[in-house]
Amino acid sequence: MEDLIAKVWELLTIYGLKVIAAVVVFIVGRWVAKGLRKFAENVMNKRQVDPTIVSFVANMTYIALLVFVVLAALGQLGIQTTSFIAVIGAAGLAIGLALQGSLANFAAGFLMIIFRPFKIGDYIEGAGVAGTVEVIQIFTTQLQTPDNKTVIIPNAGLTAGNITNYSAKGTRRVDLVMGIGYGDDIDKARTIMEDILAKDERILKEPAPKIAVVELADSSVNFVVRPWVKSEHYWDVYFDTTESIKKSFDAQGISIPFPQRDVHMYEHKE
């Protein structure tokens, strides 16, 4: 009996300290993991990161740290953790290869939410599509096109090329090209266009509109007409100004040669 008690005491002395050390490592490690998760949440909240991203990143950080803590605790018990690490690494590699497209979209979505190249309500062009941003999600971004179609773009595809944000600055320049005949009075045509721009309250005074002869074409003398407007007035001013100039030229006997060379792109509408 004394030998048995001595043996048990010896085992408790040897393994009891290891168990206590493992428990301490686990408790302290878990406390540190929670603290780091809270720190990550605070940093992202201060940067106004999307709540979905905050929750996902914070939980992933906590889980990764907790796995490390468990492995460290098992190491204190004398358990070889090399095989566990190898299995976790192999599983992570397999999952990464299987989900590489989704992970690329997630990474792109995370960066877009962090750096904010656009926000909901902005009119943008990217990945060959133009439209108003309706939803920004972790893996995809949803746009509404001018003809009321919903387009869902993978974030990786959206960030792979240039993104044009037409709403970012608040103002835009309307670019028109108007032609008159070689026999028409240039100064008279300019005055007519200046009067039209001056009467339109949607056209900004600063920066001042620009009207200038830009080209002596084969059958016309071409003017550039470049007023500045608020972004939401862009297309209304574009269409109204074109119509007003045509009507005024007709009334004043100034001809607009046909065909008129079109140098403007019509694919955007807000």
Write structural notes for this entry.
It is a single chain. The protein has 7 helices and 10 strands. By secondary structure, the protein is of the alpha+beta class. The protein has 3 domains: 2-98, Helix Hairpins (Orthogonal Bundle); 118-165, SH3 type barrels; 171-251, 2-Layer Sandwich (Alpha-Beta Plaits). A 5-stranded antiparallel beta sheet has the order 4-3-2-1-5. Helix 1 (2-46) runs antiparallel to helix 2 and helix 6 crosses helix 7 (234-251). The radius of gyration is 33 Å and the shape is rod-shaped. The model is unreliable at 260-270 (pLDDT under 50).
The CATH top-level class label of the largest domain: Mainly Alpha
Count of separate DSSP helical elements: 7
Strands, count? 10
Share of residues in strands: 15-25%
Order of helices and strands: HHHHEEEEHEEEHEEEH
Task: Tell me, rounded to a whole number, the average pLDDT.
Answer: 82
Spatial order of the strands in the main sheet? 4-3-2-1-5
How helical, in percent, are the residues? Answer: 40-55%
CATH architecture of the largest domain: Orthogonal Bundle
Q: What is the general shape?
A: rod-shaped
Radius of gyration: 33 Å
Whole-number count of domains = 3
- Let me know the largest β-sheet: 5 strands, antiparallel
Instruction: Name the poorly predicted regions.
Output: 260-270
CATH topology of the largest domain: Helix Hairpins
**Helix vs. strand class:** alpha+beta
Separation, N- and C-terminal Cα atoms: 91 Å
Provide key terms for this protein.
single chain; 270 residues; alpha+beta; Helix Hairpins; 3 domains; five-stranded antiparallel β-sheet; three-stranded antiparallel β-sheet; 52% helix; 18% strand; disordered C terminus
